[in-house]
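Would you mind writing out the residues of a protein together with its fold in token form for me to study?
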Amino acid sequence: MTATISGPAGAPPAEAAAAETGPVRAVRAGRREWVGLAVLALPTLLVSLDVFVLVLALPKLAVSLHADGTEQLWIMDTYGFMVAGFMVTMGTLGDRIGRRKLLLIGAAAFGGASVLAAFSTSAGMLIAARAALGIAGATLGPSTLSLIGTLFENPRQRAEAIGIWAGCFTVGAIVGPMVGGFMLEHFWWGSVFLLGVPAMVLLLVIGPKLLPEYRDETAGRLDLASVALSLAAILPVVYGVKELARDGVHLAAVLALGAGLVIGYVFVKRQRGLADPLIDFSLFAAKAFRTTLGGMLLFSMLGGTTMLFVAQFFQLAQHLSPVGAALGLLPGMAGSTVSFLAAPVLARRVRPGALIAGGVALAAAGMAILALVEPAAGPVWPALGFAVTSLGVGPMVALGTDLVVGSVPVRKAGAAASLAQTVNEFGYSFGLATVGTLGNAVARSYGLPAGLHVAAGLATVAFAVLVWFVARHLRSIRPLGA
């Protein structure tokens, strides 16, 4: 394999083998690499924050832009559609043109689209800006994650760095409502879109000095037909799943889902016949890769849906204010952040497979608490159940992401990172369409507590099965650095 890895100050290219060495030859990162991680983590945090503050800003911007119900849905959903649709393409593109280059292009585009969104004068203009934000956002996740793999060759340090990176998503979720509330109280609705602009400017200024460049010289050209097929497959599936979750089974959602699956089959068949595929399906030959991706899919599918039910339970069943509901979720958010940071440290002594299985078992215990909660119990028990579940999140997300990226050659890290994040996107949407729809149907018939009980009960059983599956298939992986 021939690859180009250049340092930020014009350091000579390194041998590809040096980038793919095991723990024995892996070079420990120094202060420069950890500062580079901070540069990568800041936009990750602010992108997460941006998602949560929009929920608060929607009522004000809807009035200001005279957006009807359909336009409001598109304002909310367009970003997610574009991120899901372009994630795979951007991860593979970064491997080809350079991960740092793609990250900087995406940061510039994200900053520009944020300004456009902030000063939108119509709902259509804001929807277009949100679409541009989604396409730019699709470059940030895979690029930052794959660059972490380049910066941190040492397995222990790489796992710690990914834990910090993953924790930024929950920190954004914690800070988002508070910052958004302050901005909306003192400024106009468009100000919330400007929060990420300073971080993107900082990334553009400091990134070229601190971040290494990596590209795979043997990757070949990008197959544009595969890009078109991937979009034609992913976007209808995401749309169909969201529509099923929102409105139940109807013809348009079923047709979109069916069309996406058919085009997806054509896409997979084309990839198997290409010398330079957009997705290299040989990656799935690694047991750790496919097992971890499957576990992350199930985890995001059930965890995200249950969190939504808990938030609704606080407000609708226990009649808490939005601020009170946010405070009820806060222990869980803090617990997941701690879990992200602690998991790589624990993995130095405990096998990752056992640690992930233990984390899922803890999450199942939290789900079991939620499955038994009644409104008369007050907010303490649902907050406790959510907090226990969140404490179990770290090993699967942080170590799982590390296993996905670390189980493939470094030249494929961008593609692997994009698959990991695409799985999370699909998991959340698919969870809402399946478990969420079932829970909502039960809630309409028997009340919201029953809906939470069904969602959490299904998650408890599924997580119990996942514990066995992970323990069986990942048991051979040694502790980090062993």
Q: What stands out?
A: Residues 31-65 form the longest helix (35 residues).
